[in-house]
């Protein structure tokens, strides 16, 4: 069968099918193969967004026996950990936990 023997309806159907397959292929490529998606996600979604860089410094003498710091950026007590990483890990499949700093036991 060549293009001259196809009816208009068959030609339109063939073009529509080809365009649809191309669109689905393009969307699948953008979803699974595009590196743009992975590189544009933010870790910090809401903490001190008005600052160009979030930095916290503490003197060792002020820490006491133990300090637990957030590394998932979800804590409502940031920079201290409040356990929000547990829900974050359940929701995302991540495995992040807190940074624990403590004095050596004598």
Outline the structure in words.
The chain is mainly alpha-helical and 106 residues long. The chain is built from 3 helices and 2 strands; from the N terminus they run H-H-E-H-E. The protein has a two-stranded antiparallel sheet with strand order 1-2. The longest helix is centred in the N-terminal third of the chain and has 25 residues, at 8-32. The radius of gyration is 27 Å and the shape is rod-shaped. It starts with 7 loop residues before the first helix and ends with a strand. The mean pLDDT is 84.
Give the H and E element order: HHEHE
- Give the number of helices: 3
Name the poorly predicted regions. Answer: none
Question: What's the helical proportion of residues?
Answer: 25-40%
Q: Tell me the radius of gyration.
A: 27 Å
Q: State which percent range the strand residues make up.
A: 5-15%
> What is the global morphology?
rod-shaped
The major β-sheet equals: 2 strands, antiparallel
The average pLDDT is 84
Distance between the termini: 89 Å
Protein structure class: mainly alpha
Q: Care to count the β-strands?
A: 2
Strand order of the largest sheet: 1-2
């Amino acid at each position: 069968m060549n293009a001259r023997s196809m009816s208009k309806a068959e030609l339109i159907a063939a073009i529509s099918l080809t365009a649809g397959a191309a669109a689905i292929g393009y969307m699948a490529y953008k979803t699974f193969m595009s590196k743009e998606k992975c590189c544009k996600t933010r870790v910090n979604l809401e903490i001190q967004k008005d600052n160009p860089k979030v930095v916290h410094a503490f003197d060792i003498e002020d820490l006491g026996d133990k300090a637990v710091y957030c590394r998932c950026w979800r804590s409502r007590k940031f920079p201290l950990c409040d356990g929000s990483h547990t829900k974050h890990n359940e929701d995302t499949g991540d495995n992040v936990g807190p940074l624990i700093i403590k004095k050596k036991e004598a």
